[in-house]
Amino acid sequence: MSSTRTPRPASRDGKRVLVVDDEPRMINFIRMNLELEGHQVIEARNGLEALEAVRTKLPDIMLLDVMMPQLDGYETLRMLREFSSVPVIMLTAKSEENDRVYGLELGADDYVVKPFGPRELSSRIKAVLRRTDRPSTSPSEAILKIDDRLSVDFNRHEVIVNGEYVKLRPTEYLLLYHLIENAGWTVPHDQLLAKVWGYEYRDETHYVRLYVNYLREKIEEDPANPKYILTERGIGYRFMDYKNQR
What we know:
By secondary structure, the chain is an alpha/beta fold. The protein folds into 2 domains: 16-133, Response regulator (Rossmann fold); 143-244, Arc Repressor Mutant, subunit A. Helix content is 38%, strand content 20%. It is built from 8 helices and 12 strands. It has helices at 24-36, 47-57, 73-80, 97-106, 118-133, 170-181, 189-197, 205-219; strands at 16-20, 40-44, 61-65, 88-92, 110-113, 143-145, 150-153, 158-161, 164-167, 186-188, 229-232, 236-239. A 5-stranded parallel sheet has the order 2-1-3-4-5, with helices on both faces. It has a 4-stranded antiparallel sheet with strand order 6-7-8-9, with no helix packed on it. It has a 3-stranded antiparallel sheet with strand order 10-12-11. It is elongated. The termini are far apart.
């Protein structure tokens, strides 16, 4: 009796996944496993094909290989972020933290280091989609005034700095939301990782550090000397106790 599994038909939970890799065997490996979970796989063999596929086929998420000829994954991501916020997971054989951080700084949402197994890839996809798809429960105030300089618009998932709206990426918004929800209290790294990224990220402390830096660049008057998001060295981060400073 054959043990071959057949793909589940696409369901409401299935996603359109764009897989960008110049190695056909890698694409086939990913396609087989994602289709078994009910996802629809779109293929691209280079960066230019990937950019066109994002414009025309509107994927829910992209898996983007770093090492490709002509237009590598980093340059593809840089060009992509000029017109699209589609979630991106980088596929890389490079495991050094500097390479991972570089991809995140360009706008990637996560990375998976080759070689990887289907369970790890599936877990990463679910975690990224959880962060980018889920609406957070908003506080009773649609626009929360922190002080005369900073407000948070929970309906638009944006901040207002000196009267100007500033866009936040989904992960930036979720991180800020959880910090504000615990204003005045120190939130440990592992709790932020579990709340924002998911329990499977509990050891990836560099994610919190990187995204706190992103937020500080957007909301702080002097990011090097922050007023709103304070570092509790070796423990976590604390949002200023704005309620007691009004």
